[in-house]
Amino acid sequence: MNSDLNFFGVFFPPMVLIAAASFVILQIVKRLMAALRLYRFVSHRNIFDISLYFIIVAGILFSFGGKTILPLFS
How many structural domains is the chain composed of? Predict the structure, then answer.
């Protein structure tokens, strides 16, 4: 059984969907943090944003029921 996502004949691994959703959530969080002026407490904004992205990815993967990406392929 193939666990890839079929989008008009083009197959994508499930991680692509997770990465895209994480990017959208990251953009929302970044705008919220800028509006609340929370970036003034961060010394390296780009490193913080990349770290926040990976935290969001891990949170989405963990919400699907696992510590790794393995639940996406079962």
Answer: 1
